[in-house]
Design a protein that fits this description.
By secondary structure, the protein is mainly alpha-helical. 64% of the residues lie in helices and 3% in strands. It is built from 22 helices and 3 strands.
């Protein structure tokens, strides 16, 4: 009987922490969607107070007692995962001196604005001193958090993707560089030009909204437990598995919002699929950044940019946009949305060049953290790497090193998870193709069957198991970069008539 009482105590303790977290999430969502422009400074005070309350709860000695007591009992896999996450969260929050943490928070809340101004004025020098300070804090904090002998950039990588240190990522990006850079050259030199002019031109916002809701629903996003709103940059957030929120933006090019909605639906479906017994606990979220991105990119690219997917759906698109697409064949539409166009902006990249954008960032981050690269050299090195890998060179820093907000927010070690996600998705696809008639299901409009398989192997586990374990359990193999390279070469080799 005593044991049961204690169980309840740990749960209700952590439930308070989770409630604060959910409130913080709701404020973040609100800031990006509906909050009035001038709300910022005052709302930031509420958020600050809530963050402090969360930190107090997670670092309090009462939690240590509850966790130790719990550890002395026999635990299920889920319970021990919760205990593991609680220790981890506590360790990360308590090893940074509060004064330094607050000073850093203030720096970061300012730096996003400095970055935005610098970007607008195309002036990297205005941002460089702030970036230097952020990097020095990041290195200091990583030093506090490092386990014995652990390198600083590995500490940062570990925040986003467990089990993927520099050693493993060097190998991964090494393969991409060796295989994809020359392959991209072949695609460009093939001289094949795919017309895509019909993707731009008077696509009304109202109709685009109708299409977005139709597609989210079609791929399995449950509108009884989720919503779709608008924001400057599309994202997904969730309070629990009965409240998952997506956003999108409507642009002139119809495929921009169309695929971003399928992408965010992939994130949303993951969160909706987490088990009821896990939601509102410390493991009631996706396994990692990379695994999350694998699901969104699986829906966006492997399902959404698949010819078979459009067989039952393309008619709906033509019905919504008879003027623009009425005379465009389905095959031409699918070729157009898969067109390869090496560019300067990561978020607009096609599937083939996407991970090369990420590779540039990985190589530079590693040098900034491990080799003390002078930040003033960044614009030039960025441009050189783009020229080498993608054959394009930014004219000014706004379309180069200043394009992403991540570094201004102190997110170092985040970028690799974007490329890993695509690679996880390819490995999952390879496994599914072997075991089911994947394209046949898409042709029949049965995305649900595919979604259920993803749920059974990945979604329902939340953060109980890490990404490598999930891949291993599902596909019978540890992570392998080769599947991603093979997938891209097969798909784009065919599209561009290039030998692989
Ligand atoms: Zn995403």
């Amino acid at each position: 009987m005593k044991e049961r009482e204690n169980q309840g105590r740990l749960e209700s303790y952590l439930e308070r922490a989770m409630a604060i977290k959910a409130a913080l999430t709701l404020f973040e969502w609100d800031n990006e969607t509906l909050a009035p422009q001038k709300a910022g400074a005052y709302t930031a005070r509420i958020q600050g107070a809530l963050s402090a309350a969360y930190q107090e709860l997670m670092t309090d000695s009462e939690l240590v007692d509850l966790l130790k007591e719990r550890e002395s009992q026999e635990l299920s896999e889920e319970e021990s995962a919760i205990v593991r996450e609680a220790w981890e969260e506590r360790r990360e929050l308590s090893c940074i001196p509060p004064k330094e943490y607050r000073a850093y928070q203030e720096l970061v809340s300012e730096s996003a604005r400095t970055w935005a101004d610098a970007k607008k004025k195309q002036d990297f020098d205005a941002f460089a001193p702030v970036l230097e300070k952020i990097i020095s804090y990041q290195k200091k904090f990583a030093g506090y958090q490092a386990r014995k002998g652990q390198r600083l950039y590995d500490v940062m990588l570990d925040h986003y993707e467990k089990g993927f240190s520099m050693e493993r990522l060097d190998e991964f990006f090494g393969i991409l560089k060796r295989e994809l850079v020359p392959f991209l050259q072949k695609v460009i030199q093939s001289g094949v030009d795919i017309p895509d002019d019909f993707l731009t031109g008077n696509y009304s916002e109202e109709k685009q909204r109708e299409l977005a809701e139709f597609l989210a629903n079609y791929v399995g996003f449950d509108f009884d437990r989720g919503v779709l709103a608008e924001s400057a940059h599309p994202f997904t957030t969730n309070l629990h598995n009965h409240d998952v929120r997506l956003t999108t933006h409507y642009k002139e090019r119809v495929d921009s919002s169309l695929f971003s909605v399928i992408h965010e639906s992939g994130h949303g479906i993951y969160e909706l699929g987490i088990g009821d017994q896990l939601t509102l606990t410390l493991v009631g979220q996706g396994a990692s950044m990379g695994m999350h991105e694998s699901q969104s990119r699986f829906f966006e690219n492997i399902i959404g940019r698949n010819e078979a997917f459009w067989i039952p759906v393309y008619g709906k698109l033509q019905e919504l946009f008879p003027q623009q697409l009425g005379k465009v064949d389905r095959e031409d539409f699918v070729r157009a949305v898969n067109k390869v166009q090496p560019g300067l902006i990561r978020t607009e990249a096609d599937e083939l060049t996407y991970s090369l954008h990420v590779m540039v960032r990985y190589e530079l981050e590693k040098m900034l953290i491990e080799d003390n690269l002078d930040v003033r050299k960044l614009p030039e090195m960025w441009a050189d790497k783009y020229e080498e890998y993608l054959g394009v060179r930014p004219e000014h820093p706004a379309e180069g090193v200043l394009q992403d907000i991540h570094w201004a927010q102190g997110s170092f070690g985040y970028f690799p998870s974007y490329a890993l996600g695509s690679a996880f998705a390819a490995q999952i696809y390879q496994f599914m193709r072997k075991n089911m008639d994947f394209e046949g299901l898409l042709r029949q409009g049965e995305v649900d069957v595919i979604r259920q398989v993803l749920n059974r192997h990945i979604h329902r586990f939340g953060k109980v198991r890490d990404s490598r374990r999930l891949l291993m359990d599902m596909t019978g193999e540890d992570f392998k970069s080769q599947y991603y390279v093979e997938y891209l070469k097969e798909k784009y080799g065919k599209l561009y008539g290039v030998e692989v």
